Amino acid sequence: MRIRILAAVVGVPFLLAVIFFAPHIAIGCIIGILAAIAAYEFLRGADPDRGTFVRIVVMIIAAAIPAGAAFEAGNIVFFAAIFILMLFGFMVLIASFERDKSMTLGNVMAMFFAGGMIPLMFSSLVRLGAGDYSRVNILLPFVISITCDSGAYFAGVTIGKHKLAPRVSPNKTLEGSAGGFLCGTLCTMLYGWILTFSGYQVNFILLACYGFLGSLVCQIGDLSFSVIKRLVGIKDYGNIIPGHGGVLDRFDSAIFVAPLVELLMMWVPAIWK
């Protein structure tokens, strides 16, 4: 626990510094690196028999998608990346079949998810800071996911009695889930209230919806990556973040919440200036 707290003390200021002071292109490159690491972690767990070359190619493709979004070439880069990933995946499948060491369909899908879907979700964080959006919106998915996770943890520890999904995550409870919804929603509204002092206009009803829906998606994301770990038989995706595990262990919830926040901001903006 001490290591987790120390990592958070160092990591949170770094996150805030990157979001509010780094150039937009730098944010895209940093998120691209995180997406590449996440792709590596996912492939290592879901398909440990793939060679280093395959993982490196998938990592490069994964990094290109968020970086492309920062250079305002998101659509072109994304479609090119997916097309190259598709060709590469089937080339690996054909080669493995010729060597009588055929990949399964699940192995191919793992490559597509690692190199395509994970970086696509990460790239929402880049787009939230571009165009009509602002840097405060990049922070919003983290506010929702972190406060939801924290509320669920403390509510589960103090009053949790009824198991939520014991086979997937034995320590999660219904009471903890309710605490996550409450904390995520209230803290999202608190974040909006703080922004009003900096000249932002906030629709608190919409922001409460952001917090509630975000807390729902946050918990689904957490359970989704937990069940994948159960299926492939690993405890953590990595150990790059002391006390927290890998990039996917730390950002599993945030990368589910980020696309939701982007969609809501496009449809019914809750924060503007």
Describe it for me?
By secondary structure, the protein is mainly α. 75% of the residues lie in helices and 4% in strands. It contains 10 helices and 4 strands. It has helices spanning 2-21, 24-46, 52-70, 74-98, 105-127, 135-159, 174-196, 204-232, 247-251, 254-267, and strands at 163-165, 169-173, 201-202, 271-272. The strands form 2 sheets. A two-stranded antiparallel ribbon has the order 1-2. A two-stranded antiparallel sheet has the order 3-4. Strand 1 (163-165) and strand 2 (169-173) form a beta hairpin. The protein is globular, with a radius of gyration of 19 Å.
From the alpha carbons, calculate the radius of gyration and give it in angstroms. 19 Å
Largest sheet: 2 strands, antiparallel
Task: Provide the helix percentage.
Answer: over 70%
The CA-CA distance between the termini, in Å, is: 39 Å
Strand content: under 5%
Q: Compute the number of strand runs.
A: 4
Quick overview:
This protein is mainly α and about 270 residues long. The protein is about 75% helix and about 5% strand. A hairpin with a 3-residue loop joins strand 1 and strand 2.
Structural topology:
Layout: H1 2-21, H2 24-46, H3 52-70, H4 74-98, H5 105-127, H6 135-159, E1 163-165, E2 169-173, H7 174-196, E3 201-202, H8 204-232, H9 247-251, H10 254-267, E4 271-272
Antiparallel strand pairs: 1-2, 3-4
Helix pairs in contact: 2-3, 2-5, 3-4, 3-5, 4-5, 5-10, 6-7, 6-8, 6-10, 7-8, 8-10
